[in-house]
Design a protein that fits this description.
Largest sheet: none
Order of helices and strands: HHHHHHHHHHHHH
Shape: globular
Structural class: mainly alpha
Number of strands: 0
Radius of gyration: 19 Å
Distance between the termini: 24 Å
Length: about 300
């Protein structure tokens, strides 16, 4: 593995760690702050922070007119749509189940690249996708059978919607990666995304109230680490590894998310949930065999070079 790919793999692992904790952190804030308002606050703050850094690093780089629509689209899908789906979803289901469900992202990535990039899905990828789907199915099935609540079904579907949004974003962002730096893309997508989040937040005006120091601490964590830093690290890894390989790492989020929810929120774990998480991680192991050439030094990444 060359130095660039080693860096990319390290960055995506850190991203998964921070994002894995984010569901628990979000759950804590949602006790005081409504979903869309939380998403707007964290991305408004993140956009401001990224703009200052970007202005210092790229003071003369401007967004070209022909790229404005795509940048706006990426902000709308990767920030606004994703976090509306995710935050409302987390408000309805447990933090541990939310992170496990987001592990379905690689499945949709395979189909997304097949449709958009006309890439053939290979047998080993189909096996990995099936295994991941089986693990996710165990988690959803156990949740519904235990609680039988309609909101659990709605919350689960919202998290699946978040996964689909992120895959669309990953593919759409490829064209921008060829023209601008990851910092530049992160900045403008956060700006556009937070602007589009404002109407949703304003609709929750009647629910606004005082915010405790504990919630502000979690908001700052979500802003600095999960929104600003992780977006930058994800895009950096995405440029080097491509969407399919990068999103495979998202499968590690259930392990981090479930353990954090268990320790911090005292959420109860059930055997089928644990089994589902282990099965999802098994999908990573199987994909790893295929990834030897992908991660290997000097090898062309056949998974992501078709465009």
């Amino acid at each position: 593995m060359n130095r660039e790919r080693l860096k990319a793999n390290s960055l995506i692992l850190l991203t998964v760690f921070f994002w894995g904790i984010s569901a628990t952190s979000t759950k804590i804030v949602l006790q005081e702050v409504p979903p869309a308002t939380l998403a707007f606050i964290r991305f408004s703050l993140a956009a401001g922070l990224l703009w200052v850094i970007n202005h210092m690093v790229h003071p003369k780089v401007v967004l070209k007119r022909e790229d404005r629509k795509r940048m706006l689209f990426c902000g709308a899908i990767g920030i606004t749509a994703y976090f509306i789906f995710e935050t409302y979803g987390i408000s309805l289901i447990s933090a541990s189940n939310a992170t496990i469900l987001l592990a379905s992202i690689p499945i949709f990535t395979l189909f997304g690249e097949h449709i958009a990039l006309r890439r053939k899905i290979k047998p080993v990828e189909s096996i990995g996708a099936f295994i991941t789907l089986l693990g996710v199915g165990l988690v959803i099935g156990k949740t519904i059978s235990l609680q039988g609540a309609f909101e659990e079904v709605i919350g689960s579907m919202l998290l699946i919607g978040a996964a689909v949004s992120w895959v669309i974003y990953s593919i759409a962002n490829k064209a921008l990666d060829k023209k601008y730096s990851t910092l530049f893309n992160s900045t403008y997508q956060s700006i556009f995304g937070s602007m589009l989040l404002f109407p949703f937040a304003l609709s929750e005006y009647s629910e606004w109230g005082a915010i405790s120091l504990l919630s502000w601490g979690n908001i700052l964590y979500l802003t600095i680490f999960c929104s600003a830093l992780c977006t930058f690290m994800y895009l950096t890894a995405l440029k080097s590894l491509g969407p399919t390989v990068t999103n495979v790492y998202i499968n590690l989020m259930p392990f981090v998310g479930v353990m954090t929810a268990y320790i911090v929120l005292k959420e109860q774990l059930y055997p089928l949930q644990i089994a589902g998480g282990l099965i999802i991680i098994l999908g990573i192991f199987i994909t790893g065999f295929k990834g030897r050439k992908v991660f290997g030094e000097g090898e062309k990444n056949l998974l992501t070079q078709k465009s």
